[in-house]
Amino acid sequence: MSKILIVMSAADVWERTDGSAYPTGYWAEELAAPHEKFTAAGFTVDFASPGGVLQPLDAHSANPEVAGPECTHYVEHAERALREFGPLLKLDEVAADDYVAVVLPGGHGPVVDLYQDADLGRLLVEADAAGKVIGAVCHGPAGLLSAVGADGGWVFAGRRMAAFTDEEEELFGTAENAPWLLASTLRDRGALHSGGPAYQAYTVRDRNLFTGQNPASSAPMAEAIVAALTEEE
């Protein structure tokens, strides 16, 4: 049975430029919606993180006023999926050859650790070189920054992608005192970033790279990935 790897951040705190510590964790919808779509389509899903550390749930993603009325379903699904999977795989022990796709959900964690994680970078470089599907949603595209080739260049420079926009960061109240803003940084590194209306579903496909702008984009991105993988079979 074909397997998909979901790579989570291990960060539970986002250090701010004013010295404050912002609690973070995985965003329930961004983990649960893809997992739900992948398993319903018959794929096996593994979870990995730096050191195999299980990141906590971002409390905002369990708040209906922030995450919408379906958040309870996503929280329950995510917690059940992680519990049933058991200890997360250690990122330095996984190989791209074992998976048909690598997917990066968000929460603010990826801008803390995954963006500079060498093991993730190795995995993504190998996956992209093999033409495997790579997905990232919301702050997950920060993890793409880790993919540096042998020539020192960013593997995803010149690629079209979506990610949590600077506007959305401002609306969420986390732009001020952020060490860096994701969409601006992706563009500075050479990504062809585009965005849709704030908090509305918006996805972009560039060959084997599938990206989504925000939590609402999680399910549509996963559906596009399933469709692409199904076509390949």
TrEMBL record:
InterPro entries, per the entry: Class_I_gatase-like, DJ-1/PfpI, Prot/Nucl_acid_deglycase
Domain DJ-1/PfpI: start-end pairs: 30-227
Protein name from the UniProt record: DJ-1/PfpI domain-containing protein
Gene source species: Lentzea cavernae
